[in-house]
Amino acid sequence: MRFRLAAFFLALTLSPMAARAADAPPADIKGMWLTSDYPALQLRAGEESSLPLTLYTYGLPPQRTALTIAEKPAGWNAEITGSNKQVSAAFTDYNGRANLNLKLNIPADAKPGPYKVKLNAAGEGANSALEIAVDLAAPLAAKLTAAPKVPVLKGTPKSSFDFNVTVKNESASDMLVNLATDAPRGFQVTFKEGYGTQEITSLVFKPGDSKDISVNIKPALSASAGQYPINVTFNGDKATAAAKLTMDVAGQPSITLTGQGERLSGDAYAGEERNLQLIVRNTGSAPARGIEVSSTPPTGWKIDFQPKQIPEINAGEEKQVTAVLTPNAKAINGDYMLSIRASGDGISENASYRVTVMTSTLWGVTGILVIGAALLVLLGAVGRFGRR
Amino acid sequence: MRREGSALSGATTVMAKELADNLASVRMRMLELLIFVTGAGAVYATIGSVKDIAGLVGEDQFIFLKIFTTPRDPLPSFVAFLGFLIPIVSIALGFDSVNSEFNRRTMSRILAQPIYRDALLFGKFLSGLVTLAVVLSALWIFVVGLGILLLGLPPGGEEVKRGLAFLVTAIAYGAVWLAMAMLFSIVFRSAATAAMASLAVWLLFAFFWQMLVPLLTTLVASPDPFDLASQLKTISIGLGIARLSPNTLFGEATLAFLNPSERGQSLGPILRSQMEGAISGPLPFDQSLILVWPQLTGLVAAVIVLFTIAYIMFQRQEVRA
Predict the structure, then answer these.
(1) Is A334 within 8 Å of B283 when comparing Cβ atoms?
(2) What is the ipTM of this complex?
(3) Which of A249, A265, A297 lies at the terminal end of a domain, its last residue?
């Protein structure tokens, strides 16, 4: 029993050592290797690529290993780096390793075909050579793609249409892309990047970059109902992409209420009927239906509209309405405000009409009659008492 | 004996002579001086405050009319000054027009000329009226000129119309007092008595009438405090009594002419239902005129009635050599 317990503790204390032993190289391998994960690969001209290298020194004493690029195709730029620095030697521990990188910069005009890059590692009493076979492919053609997420949107002339277009640079180099549309006159187009707030006119794309561009289009208020195809073009310096968007603008009626000659004022005599001409105009892009003209006049005033209801006004047309107004017979002279309302299905318009109430000059005659009577009395007196 | 020919033949001659007397008299000089000094003082003081108001309110459409109506402590407004001074000028012009002829024993001498008695009275009254009109017009032009000079802006067409209407009202108001003073100069043989009587009436209307009106109203009507109609009736009776005074008529007429936004709310009771939906704004001139047309015709009719009474009394008087 004591024995078993001791063995258990021994196993416990030994277990980390056992784990380390599993990481360690097998005891029967001894030497130096400079290796790459992918010793044969395909690259494209004009691209810069980085290959991970590993230097193993198994069963050798700690030592310094010189690293050299023994052979590379003419015009290619190659360098060995470690920890992002250019290196020409690496130091490895007993059974150690060093992680390195090979950076290859292939000129864009390199001809496609097989190439070789040879690397040498020279340590104390051990050497290793690595040959990487590069199959150079033709450079990629510059390519830009644009894909709208929802290409057709529907709305009214008052709404704003928000399209989202994903633009991707599928070429090997940076690209400056200008944004343009062929929206009809009066349509306002703004470009924004993703969820940004700044308006943009151009964007820089890195190779492989993909960006969401929101295209906001506000139609002209006078735009009639219909479909408006809009081409958004993304002009890069090497490639062009286009997105076809469609705005489906539904018509909307909109009415205004004015007097004749755009005048919203008139005069009336207290207690007398007066006709005021009003004009209901449809300034929208769809027919307005069931327009009812009404008003809540002050107490004692009467207002009647002829016609009370207009069944339909086509877009851009106007209809005349006669308001028959009778001010309160006791209304005092001066200005009054009448609120007149025109409302149909979903639309409504208010107009304040200024009515100047006047007193009829008929009363003035009474005053003249009083003076005339006084003069008659005077004349009578002159006739009666006139003497030498 | 019946008269032959027009009652007015010879009236123009009398008028011209009387006018010459009036305009050249020392009394006239003193009155002119009084009215011009007080008028100029009131206007000069007012213009300072009008400038303040103009700066505060911004663009006032009728800034020029404010010269007439804006008071400035301790001076009353120009209009209020005129309300006091016009009766004094009129009384001064009329209180001895007839009785002085008797006292100087010149009446029979004048009537010995080929002039009718009617013509004498018409001529005297017209000359007084013309004198009054000349003085007031001169004062009006003087004030407007002072306003242009000190405010630096000309009056607009509407303001000129309203200003002229005010001038006409002032002349009619003066004519009432002139007719009354002449009536007293006929009734009383002594000029001093006529002057005292005229001044007594003036004092009554200028100072005591406001106090008497509520008293007289309660004598005539007793309003039921729970009945709107009877209260309204009482108010209108009170207004009717107040309007027996030419001062009230003059005040109301000038208020409407010089304050374009006056729509009758200061001239009588107005129910809230009448004002519903009303917005403030100036009235057109002709509407202001219609508003106070009763006041204007009242003043003119008062002149004619007072003159008629004076005429009848004068015609019935005995003239001895």
Answers:
(1) yes
(2) 0.77
(3) A249
